[in-house]
C-alpha cells in the first residue's frame, strides 16, 4: 500500500511558546483512517496546520504522496476541517464557502457548481446552499465545513474535532460518510467512541510527543496508558459494558 503521509523528525513551535511538537515521525497509508488523541495542548491542531502547509516547522520534513509540503503553498491533496468552524467559514453564503476551494483549483463554473452540489448533498445540507453563513447554528456550520473540505476531493482528510456541535443524527451520518470514504484520514477528537467506529489505528500525543501508536482498540483499551496521559477508556471497551436499550424478554 502506498504512503499518503510521511513525517520525519518534525518539530513545531510558536514564537511565544516552547516546542509544541518534538521529533514526531509517522506514516499513514493511502486509504488508512487514523485517530489522533491526547489532552488539550498536546499538539494535535498544530500538527494539522503543519501538514496543511499553514504552520512552518522548526525542523523535520512532511511529505504528501511523495511531495514535500511547502509552508504557505496551496496543497490541494489536503482537506482540513478546522477545530473552530468560524476559522474556516468566511464567505457570505454556504454555497460561496463550499465553492471557494474548487474555484482555487481553477475549475470552470460548471465543475465548481457540481462539486458544491455533490458535497452539500453527501452531508445532507443541500437546503443550506443559499443561507448566510452567519445564520447557521453551530452544528450546521460544522456540516458546511465538512462539505467544504470534501469539495476539494482531497486524497488526505484532516478532521479536527469533526463531531463538535453535531446532534446524534448528524454524528451518525458523519460516521457512515467517513466509513465509506476512500481518502486517507487523520482525525483528532475527544469523542473516542466515534473514533472506535471510524478508525483503524490510533496515535496518542502528550506534551508534544507521540507516546502510543497502535490498533485503535488496543490503545484505547490500555487503561494504564490512557490514564497516564489524561484520557479515559471508552465505555464500550469496559469489560463489564452492558449494551443500552436491551430489555428483559417478556413472557407475556
Automatic annotation (TrEMBL):
InterPro entries: AAA+_ATPase, ABC_transporter-like_ATP-bd, ABC_transpr_CbiO/EcfA_su, ECF_ABC_transporter_ATP-bd, P-loop_NTPase. PROSITE patterns: ABC_TRANSPORTER_2 (PS50893). Residues 236-252 have a biased composition (Basic residues). GO terms for cellular component: ATP-binding cassette (ABC) transporter complex. It holds the Pfam family ABC_tran. SUPFAM superfamilies: P-loop containing nucleoside triphosphate hydrolases (SSF52540). Residues 5-232 form the ABC transporter domain. It comes from the Bacteria. One of its GO terms (molecular function) is ATPase-coupled transmembrane transporter activity. The keyword Cell membrane applies. Residues 230-252 are annotated as: Disordered. Keywords: ATP-binding, Cell membrane, Membrane, Nucleotide-binding, Transport. Belongs to the ABC transporter superfamily. This is ATP-binding cassette domain-containing protein. It comes from Azoarcus taiwanensis. The lineage of its organism: Bacteria, Pseudomonadati, Pseudomonadota, Betaproteobacteria, Rhodocyclales.
